[in-house]
Amino acid sequence: MQLNIAVCDDEPIICEGIRKKILEIKTDYQVDIYNTGAEIVSADKRYDLIFLDIEMPGKDGMIIAKELREKGYKGNIVFLTSHTEFMPEAFKVRAFRFLEKPVKTGELEETLSEAEKEFVNNKKLIVADSGAHIIINISDILYVEGKKNDTIIHMTDGSIETKKTMKYWLTELGEGQFCQVHKSYLVSLRYIKEVYTDRVTMQYIDDEIPVSRRNATLVKKVFFDYIKSNAKPI
User: Fold this and answer.
1) Is the overall model pTM greater than 0.90, yes or no?
2) What CA–CA distance (Å, rounded) separates 98 from 83?
3) Average pLDDT over every residue of 119-144
4) How far is C-alpha 117 from the chain's CA centre?
5) How far apart are alpha carbons 170 and 31 in whole angstroms?
């Protein structure tokens, strides 16, 4: 999965450092740099995640965040700061989280992982079905099944046939939340119940999804990595 990210800080060296770390963690992300709040507010580009320094000359990051929200920005905002007294104000602009400068690689990696999960959970798709256009949530997709050049999207509450190819869905849904277990099947990791050498079982359905021999090892690794990254402490 590819996210479009902006980093806004009045110190270019900090921006470049964060950009470099992001691209080391996620090589397919797009990262733009801004050195003033005015630049990012006026930018004609959609971002999924914005890293925003609070302590900037002129309008501080909190004011810039408010202006972004007023302009209609609905993505996540991560504040860069070393002062926690800004936290109460941050709730008003729906801050995703804070990162203390200098930004630690481990904390940045966790932030990107959580942002990607939230993006997938909230993302919607418009799918054409029998002349109608239906809006679906990615989080409702169980798996995508390939049928020659077409595909069927199987969801928690039904199925939709589409003219999109499996290659299209691989790009659209991306890695991290989905895994191609077979040339004809792309499954949502969140709905897998059990993984076997030659098949997986899913929530909501009785049918088993085949796993190809060439994908068997990868499927197990991807699934267990997903479980580890999503496990909540007891």
Assistant:
1) no
2) 10
3) 81
4) 5
5) 22
Question: What gap in Å lies between CA 163 and CA 46, rounded to an integer?
Answer: 27
Q: How many Cβ atoms are within 10 Å of 82's Cβ, its own excluded?
A: 11
Q: Tally the C-alpha atoms within 13 A of residue 64's C-alpha that lie toward its C-beta.
A: 30
3-class secondary structure per residue, 147-200 = ECCEEEEEECCEEEEECCCHHHHHHHHCCCCEEEEECCEEEEHHHEEEECCCEE
pLDDT for 87 equals: 54
Interacting residues of 66 by C-beta distance below 8 A, sequence separation 6+: 92, 93
Query: DSSP characters for 50-88?
Result: EEEES--SSS-HHHHHHHHHHTT--SEEEEEES-GGGHH
Amino acid (one-letter) located at 97: R
Q: Could you tell me the two tokens for 234?
A: 């007891």
Written as six digits, the tokens of 92 are: 């008003």
Task: Give mean pLDDT, residues 160-186.
Answer: 87
All residues at 6 or more sequence positions from 217 whose CB lies less than 8 Å from its CB, including other chains = none
Query: Considering the chain, what percentage of its residues have pLDDT values greater than 90?
Result: 51
The token pair that represents 75 in the structure block: 């993505």
- The answer for 205, left when phi > 0, alpha when psi is -120 to 50, beta otherwise, is beta
Within 10 angstroms of residue 80's Cβ, the number of other Cβ atoms is 24
| First-residue to last-residue Cα distance in the chain | 29
E strand or H helix that includes residue 98 = strand 97-100
202 or 228, which is more confident? 202
